[in-house]
Inverse folding.
């Protein structure tokens, strides 16, 4: 299965600033997914990122707040803009693990953001 | 509407005890997948199993076993002879065939604590 590297692994940010999270995959993938996991909560899909097109955002998430780039088939970034303490979460990048079967996802280790 | 319920928020057992994590799902679709993922304290989600709706056979993998019962819409996970390394948050998830963008419906997770 694919190996996913996320940077940063964790960060402490000031209110009102923006942070970009990078996701690098060791193989080419069609779709990459960005999830948010708020403290003690389950996972929520933010958006799906396809190479060469705009990301598809889920209900409750907008491009102005979470702009996503997908410049090639192995890389994506998620920016959390104008952060507030409510944005403190783990942000996870994932891809489909085709070797394990349909809809099986492989995840990066996550980026734990704390907003003060 | 689709939904995944993990009623057990936290379970604590002593090492070597058997433990069962419950998962109940709701879906109108006749074709769907069920998943279990493990999230250890390090944060990275690890895929454990995928089961499709047409395969009700129980599965065993070492100390892990899964009991899928469509009659009760349940997909329970049992760890036999638990070990401290099994301590993690376990998520059950549902994917319906109608959703082509790999939208998984996640349960809230069960935190499993194995005491030495």
């Amino acid at each position: 299965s694919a190996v996913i590297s996320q940077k940063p692994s964790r960060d402490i940010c000031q209110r009102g600033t923006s942070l970009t999270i990078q996701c690098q995959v060791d193989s080419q993938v069609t779709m990459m997914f960005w999830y948010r996991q708020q403290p003690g909560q389950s996972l929520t899909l933010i958006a799906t990122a396809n190479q060469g097109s705009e990301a598809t955002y889920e209900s409750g998430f907008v491009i102005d707040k979470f702009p996503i780039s997908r410049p090639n088939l192995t890389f994506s970034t998620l920016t959390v803009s104008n952060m507030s303490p409510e944005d403190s979460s783990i942000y996870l990048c994932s891809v489909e693990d085709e070797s394990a079967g349909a809809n099986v996802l492989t995840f990066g280790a996550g980026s734990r953001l704390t907003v003060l | 509407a689709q939904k995944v319920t993990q009623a057990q928020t936290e379970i604590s057992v002593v090492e070597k005890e058997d433990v069962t994590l419950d998962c109940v799902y709701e879906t109108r679709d006749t074709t769907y997948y069920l998943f279990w993922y493990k999230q250890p304290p390090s944060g990275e989600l690890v895929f454990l199993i995928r089961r499709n709706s047409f395969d009700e056979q129980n599965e065993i993998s070492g100390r892990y076993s899964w009991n899928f019962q469509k009659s009760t819409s349940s997909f329970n996970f049992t760890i036999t002879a638990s070990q401290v390394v099994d301590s993690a948050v376990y998520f059950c998830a549902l994917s319906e065939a109608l959703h082509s963008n790999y939208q998984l419906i996640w349960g809230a997770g069960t935190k499993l604590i194995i005491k030495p």
Q: What stands out?
A: Chain A touches chain B at residues 31, 33, 41-45, 48, 56, 58, 90, 92, 94, 96-97, 100-110, 112 (CB under 8 Å). The mean pLDDT of chain A is 93. The first strand of chain A starts at residue 4 and ends at 7.
